[in-house]
Design goal:
By secondary structure, the protein is mainly α. The chain has four helices and four strands, in the order αβααβαββ. It is globular, with a radius of gyration of 13 Å. It binds a DNA duplex (13 and 13 nucleotides) through α2, α3 and β2.
Length: 108
Amino acid sequence: MSVTLFQQRVYDAVSLIPVGRVATYKGVADRIRCGSPRAVGQALRLNPFAPSVPCHRVIASDLTPGGFQGERAGPVLRRKVRLLEHEGIRFTGGRLAEPERLFTFERV
DNA sequence: AGTCGCCACGAAG
DNA sequence: CTTCGTGGCGACT
């Protein structure tokens, strides 16, 4: 069970997302100064601290839900959406209903 | 040591 | 829609 420094940064940043807000993979990547949001997704996929690290609050930049527990569609992804809706986040037509719910990290 | 191929992405065409 | 850039990482050689 090894956690790389990069993963540590990702999990640390994601932990800053408040309840009722969501961040994007790009937002997280920008926060930790990683040029590849894809790498962030890869780290979250291996998230060993779920659900302590609220990886379900990270969505794609086009405001679609992104993935969850290795799945990019199907009932598993629906569970992610359900979790978010339980926190007051609504999705309409497969995309985030209220973009003002987006959480943007402070620039370092 | 290097290389290769995979990704829960994003931007551009 | 498709393709390309991208950074990190595991599995190889």
